[in-house]
Amino acid sequence: MIDEQNILFSKENTIEKLMSNNRKGNEDFNETMLSTLLLMGWVLILLPLLAVPFSNTKEGVIPAYLLAFAAFLALFLLYKVPSMKKYTLVGLYLGFSVLFLLGIYLSVIHSPNMRATVLLGGFILMPLSFIDRLHRKILFLALWLGVHTLLAYYLKPLLVLDDTINCLMAAILGCFLGNTLMRVRLESLEARRLLIIEKGTDELTGLPNRRKLYETLTMLEGSDVEKPTGIMMLDIDHFKDFNDQYGHVPGDRYLRFFAEVLTNFTKVFRWHFYRFGGEEFVAIAYGYDKDELYSIAESLRVAVQRADMEGYSTTVSIGVAYCGEEQVANYEKVIERADNAAYTAKRSGRNIVCME
Q1: Residue 285's beta-bridge partner residues?
Q2: Helices 160-199 and 118-129: crossing angle, nearest 10°?
Q3: Is the dihedral angle over the CA atoms 349, 350, 352, 355 positive or is it negative?
């Protein structure tokens, strides 16, 4: 856990790593920003349209404003479709492309004798608005800066230098502020992610804890998730005697080694292990029939017996409850069945697997 928490302050704590660690949070944030920005886009375009009857200068730009309004509204409705969520970044870049096209039109076609205004706001706003790799944002801004500069060179040559300098300064400022704000957002997402991990992780063994187990059981009651085919309860034999004889520090190391044995099994089999409390552990299995569950549990029992726990040896009593053919409404009941099977294994002499 310490290593995880130090990621916020590590020299290797790059934006790329933060983005990779928090991909889901990035996507959720961008989806919210896309919806908000597109809504603001077509609503704000209404303002200059409403001002047309009161301003002679606005009549000539009615077609441009109407096109921008239609584009923002179309994108807003399009990205309300659930299947479009995976293209959120495309929508954000398209939305800002509409803004830049409108800004360029106002700057070089409608008002060639005036310095760019709306365009400057676009160069500052765009880098601040969403999370994406900085080089893509810079390339996007460079594209529109180049388009505007080229058109201004031919259509408003007297102001091309002023506009280019102003747009470049706005883009640099936007990128600097955007990169800083994006890093703050990502570090906030990372801090929240680590807090969630910490709350759901047993500090001693590094395995998910009892709290995480019950969160998982609640999730399994949903209709759209894969259901487990079995649950296993493991109880280390004579652990209390070990603690009494050698002390709690060796006992803690003992539990960590035991957790490593369990973790190695997760690399081969679809078992998810949790520390239930004390010397008890729970595993949730996916995709195995009853005979396979018993066989894997027996392999685990043998692996524990053969493991060298810093010169100590141990055994484990295992109870397995098969539920692959059941419609389970409450998986806590399945844990109770596995627990009862583990108690049967204890009473039957320990170091055995009992199937419920």
Answers
A1: 230, 271
A2: 20
A3: positive
What's the Cα-to-Cα distance from 346 to each of 170, 241, 259, rounded to whole Å? 73, 15, 20
The residue type of 164 is T
3-class DSSP string for the chain: CHHHHHHHCCCCCCHHHHHHHCHHHHHHHHHHHHHHHHHHHHHHHHHHHHCHHHCHHHHHHHHHHHHHHHHHHHHHHHCCCHHHHHHHHHHHHHHHHHHHHHHHHHHHHHCCCCCCCHHHHHHHHHHHHCCCCHHHHHHHHHHHHHHHHHHHHHHCCCCHHHHHHHHHHHHHHHHHHHHHHHHHHHHHHHHHHHHHHHHCECCCCCCECHHHHHHHHHHHCCCCCCCCCEEEEEEECCHHHHHHHHCHHHHHHHHHHHHHHHHHHHCCCCEEEEEEECCEEEEEECCCCHHHHHHHHHHHHHHHHHCCECCECCCEEEEEEECCCCCCCCHHHHHHHHHHHHHHHHHCCCCCEEEC
Domains of the chain with bracketed CATH? 2-198 (no CATH), 210-355 (3.30.70.270)
Do 202 and 195 contact (CB within 8 A), yes or no?
no
Rounded Cα distance, 263 and 286, in Å: 16
Chain position carrying tokens 């934006």: 15
Out of 27, 260, 279, 310, the active site residue is 279
Compute the distance between CA of residue 64 and CA of residue 51 in angstroms, rounded to an integer. 14
Contact 321, 334 (CB under 8 A): yes
279 is annotated as an active-site residue: yes
- pLDDT < 50 positions in the chain: 1-5, 7-12
Determine the Cα–Cα distance for residues 40 and 60; give it in Å rounded to an integer. Answer: 23
Q: What is the pLDDT of residue 55?
A: 67
Model confidence, pTM? 0.69
pLDDT tens-place string over residues 278-315: 899 999 999 999 999 999 999 999 999 988 777 777 89
Strand order in the sheet with 280-285: 271-277, 280-285, 230-236, 316-322, 353-355
